[in-house]
């Protein structure tokens, strides 16, 4: 999986694919800060599913709160957020299957009388 912003460090061995869902009605900030030479931070909107790569020992911090304040609400080990290998393979197939064919279609022409 390509993670363009803040990719897993190049010396990391066996990164895992993880999924976190914001099941609250509030915007959350999630961070991983316990991995040397790597900082991961994302905004997760209510109901949003965040799929990301991390090392199994990473800890996902979940911060929530109101304007200009954030409270550490939870810390979740990333190995508990890991997607199963079968699901990882399915996701790769779905990504490839979702790529549309490059078809050239004639524009619809409507004549007005």
TrEMBL record:
Domain of life where this protein originates: Bacteria
Any Pfam family the entry gives: DUF1830
This protein's name: DUF1830 domain-containing protein
Organism from which the protein derives: Thermocoleostomius sinensis A174
